[in-house]
Amino acid sequence: MAKRFNLNVNGRAHAVTADPEMPLLYALRDDLGMHEPRFGCGLAQCGACTVLLDGNPARSCSVPVSAVGAAKVTTLAGIGSAQKPHKVQAAFIEEQVPQCGYCLNGWVMTSVALLEKNPHPSDEQIRDALTGLKCRCGTHLSIIRAVKRAAQA
Amino acid sequence: MSLQMNRRDFLAGSGTLVVSVMLPGLSAHAATPGTQASRMALKPDQLSSYISVNRDGSVTGWVGKVDMAQGTEIGWIKIIAEELDMPPERVRMVQGNTEETVDQGGASGSTGIWRGGHALRNAAAEARLTLMEMGAAKLGVPIDQLEVNDGVISQRGKPGRKVSYGELIGGRQFDVQLEWNKEYGNDLLVKGRAKPKSPSEYKQIGKPGTRRRDVAEKLYGTATVMADIKVPGMLHGRVLRPPVAGAVPVSVDNTSVKDIPGVRVVWQKNFIGLVAPKQWDAIRAARQLKVVWSAATPPFPEQQDLYKHIAGAKVMKRDEEVNSGDVDAAFAAAARVVEYSYAWPFHSHASLSPACGIADMRADSATVWTGGQKPHHCREGIAIMFNLPEDKVKVIYTPGPGSYGRNDSGDATMDAAVLSKAVGEPVRVQGMRHDGTGWDPKSPASIHRSRAAIDKDGKVLAWHFETKGFSRREFFRDEGSPERTLAGQLMDWPLKPVWLLGVPGESYSFARRKTSDTIGPLLDRASPLRSSHFRDPGGPQIHFASESFMDELALATNTDAVEFRLRYLKEPRDLEVVRTVAEKASWQSHVGARKQMRGEVHTGQGLAYAVRGATRVAVIAEVEVNPKTYRVWVRRYVIAHDCGQVIAPDLLRQTIEAQVVQTTSRAVFEEVKFDQRNVTSVDWLSYPILDIKDAPEAIDITLIDRPEMPPAGAGEATCRVVAAAVANAIFDATAVRLRQVPFTPERLKAAWV
Question: How many domains does chain B have?
Fold first, then answer.
């Protein structure tokens, strides 16, 4: 049976009525009308749906909406904007990283979390942190360049 | 010729132009449905079909192609801005929408700049000439005394005497006829009286630094892509696929989903799907719906027998045969013959997200939203399927996940159309991951036999190269007819398979015979192994074999691999890419495997070269092979690339770089797995692709710019040289010759010497 859930997304309170098993991704996209996290696999295998839950990257396709609780949800649009870009966003733009961009949420949000914990990662640490994320267009080298640029910002 | 200007105010006919001009980039795609009706009357021989000047003096270019997010849009903008002497910031493009652009074939065959850009360049040159004539009349100054700066025409030496493009025609349409070659699609070409600029006059072409328009909004989460489109009243649809490929629904228990609100099941012929108002409910219902499927005979061979099947299969068509010189005589006279065989598996398009399509089917019209790369062909297919006149079908292009030929987009839009027609509401379809990887079109598996005749002095006399495999166009290259989609095949549309694979592109000077034999599909209707275009269709397969063989031939004739190419290639541009790449990679002449070590890993270099259309490319791969884990890592690529005139070098580099990474993934990691019943590669675990840990450290690209030549295609050529370069480098590193893709640890271990 559908239940009501209160979500804190990008600092704003929202209420969603949904099946408790429904993944957070569908609440964000279909109920709140957000464009950022994308459906890629529904299996937590690609990262296209990544958001931050209390600052940690999470695959929103595999987190039931009932499990979010009071955790603060941050999406791609929640970390920065054209007026006030996050340094990772600015670096990805500077390096002109994305082609189709469907995978971006995973790379950007995971990089944000990496740089919070390790502000000056080595190439190997960047690869370790980002392993498992998928990009079909093959922009991996641009991604590594962008994370290094963000670390220097 | 007198100039006939149409004084009809463009805005009177289409009040929405201003709206779409003010919306940046991708948002405009979402904002334009139902607008621009006046453009429908535009014809391919009208300048206004390609170029218009807005009231504020900015310029809009209209193109019936689409940029698959590789910066082709910036290429078009630079071409138009150059001819018109405009800053690129004041030029924008409208791409692909069927009501706003002439059918120029969509994204297809790396023709975006080569063909699409050619038409736009001629149109922009004609627009400039027309504007100069208008300016001359307005200022009372002969045309040869005028100059243009940033869209403002002025008298040379008297900058105060001026008139802007916007003042001359802003907001109104050109009424200028172009010479049109009467072709549509990729072959469409127009030209006017004006001669485009000569390269010596270029201020923008060939220079870096023009930013893509779609990047920032993707980073800020404000872009609208196909999956984001919402149509009022839209339902969510899902299509059910059988557990055994070829099985069809026999019965359906609608009560099995009665607890899910608003579900409606649609069963037409062998197509079965459902809709629900909420997406999550559609997903649950698709999992829960009880369908009894027919007892189909498992249609596939065991995976390990695939290449045996291809070798023994009936040839449907020998689609290409190239003969040069007397090959038979050369083999008869040969001192020895070298022969090897190669194999390439099925690959999944595996776009990052399963395709999404939306259709709003009405009694006598249709609106369709597609992320597919050929919107005009999408319109044709929908029109035929539902017996609608083409002009009653509107297709709106919105960027989908990366598409590199023929992905599952055409299937998703047709699925949405069938469901929408059945339930009388707009329907959005987006499958789950298994619908994408499991059921998308596959690039064809193939085998290749390569033989060479060598004389007693080690000279290559002749080469005989045979390809045999599934078609790269079994159900064509686009969704322009119902039987080219899964829904059409499930609804019994007569099949019209096209048998085509291909032969290598190169310029070796020895006598040669190249043949390409296409076999029929394993399952002829609604098969998860149906084969179609995937980036450089057939190219990676064929050139993996041909360029691996050239290295084997170099070894057999005791020749360095670079020296071998330089000895036998004959076209100067081909020779130059090989020479350049060898120099940039500091190639050391050697014969055979060097088995060099760096610490605990073997290292090696491998070369491959190829021609694709008017583009030449040579690549040297530098690999590390771990003798304990058998991991292959391509640490660095060095590339020399010649696609004629370079428009936007920075974007071209990124296009090449990404296609190298993507093809590395195909060569080293990818193989569609299947059993006798069905495809078993259904997600990223069962269909692994390159991980960032396996991405190269560097890809060093040298662009050989030829401003005096037309720009040729660059989106695919490099795909065809990657696998052979890697295989050749693995051989140099280990003395193991891999003749089958992918280069997995298991395969390398089995072949280790």
Answer: 3
Domain CATH code at residue B286: 3.90.1170.50
User: Do residue B690 and residue A103 have CB atoms under 8 angstroms apart?
Assistant: no
Residue B287 lies in a domain: yes
Q: Is A127 on the interface with B (CB under 8 A)?
A: yes
Q: Which of B298, B314, B335 is the last residue of a domain?
A: B298
Instruction: State pLDDT tens for residues B184-223.
Output: 999 999 999 999 999 999 999 999 999 999 999 999 999 9
Name the residue in chain B with its Cα closest to that of A101.
B218
Together in a domain, B121 and B251: no
Cβ count near B571 (within 10 Å): 14
For A49-77, the pLDDT digits (tens) are: 999 999 999 999 999 999 999 999 999 99
**What does the block give as tokens for B451?**
């033989």
Query: Are B152 and B67 in the same domain?
Result: yes
- A73-83 tens-digit pLDDT: 999 999 999 99
Could you give the residue ranges of the DSSP H alpha helices within B405-538? 409-423, 433-439, 486-490
- pLDDT tens across B147-181, in order? 999 999 999 999 999 999 999 999 999 999 999 99
Which site among A38, A59, A110, A140 would you substitute to test the B interface, given the most B Cβ atoms closer than 10 Å to its Cβ?
A140
In a domain, residue B239? The reply is yes
> Does residue B595 share a domain with residue B546?
yes
Domains identified in chain A and CATH numbers:
3-75 (3.10.20.30), 79-152 (1.10.150.120)
The rounded percent of chain B whose pLDDT value lies above 70 is 95
Q: Work out the pLDDT band at B722, boundaries 50, 70, 90.
A: very high
Of A46, A104, A137, the CB nearest to B219: A104
Backbone angles phi, psi at A23, to 5 degrees: -65, 150
**Residues B155, B258 share a domain:** no
| Secondary structure (3-state) at B58 | coil
* Closest alpha carbon to A97 in B657, B222, B456: B657
* CB-based contact A135 B352, cutoff 8 Å: yes
Q: Do A108 and B433 count as a contact with CB atoms less than 8 A apart?
A: no
Contact (Cβ atoms closer than 8 angstroms) between residue A121 and residue A146: no
- Confirm or reject contact between B209 and chain A (CB < 8 A): no
Q: Does A103 touch chain B (CB under 8 A)?
A: yes
Largest CA distance in chain A: 50
Residue B540: pLDDT band with limits 50, 70, 90 = very high
CATH code (residue B572)? 3.30.365.10
Whether residues B717 and B647 fall in one domain: yes
B216 to chain A, any CB pair closer than 8 A? The answer is yes
How far does A32 lie from chain B, in Å, by closest CA? 12
CB contact under 8 A, A92 and B219: yes
B700 touches chain A (CB under 8 A): no
Question: E strands, A10-106, where?
Answer: 12-18, 50-53, 56-59, 72-74
Across the interface, of A18, A105, A139, the residue whose CB is closest to B658 is A139
Residues B61 and B156 in one domain: yes
Asked if the structure places residue B224 within a domain, the reply is no
Which of B243, B271, B298 is the C-terminal boundary of a domain? B298
Nearest to A103 among B68, B352, B699 (CB): B352
Rg (chain B; Cα; Å) = 27
Among B66, B211, B212, B220, most A C-beta atoms within 10 A, so best to mutate, is B220
Task: Identify the three-state secondary structure at position B251.
Answer: strand
B36 φ/ψ angles, rounded to the nearest 5 degrees: 65, 25
Residue range of the domain that includes B238: 232-298
How far are the Cα atoms of A83, A150, B94 from residue B216, in angstroms, in the given order? 11, 15, 18
Same domain flag for B675 and B545:
yes
Identify whether B656 is part of a domain. Answer: yes
- The answer, yes or no, to whether ipTM is higher than 0.90 is yes
A17 shares contact with chain B (CB less than 8 Å):
no
Q: B222, B352, B403: best mutation site toward chain A, by most A Cβ within 10 Å? A: B352
Closest residue by Cα to residue B728 from B613, B591, B616: B591
Residues B250 and B188 in one domain: no
Question: Does B685 contact A38 at a Cβ distance shorter than 8 Å?
Answer: no
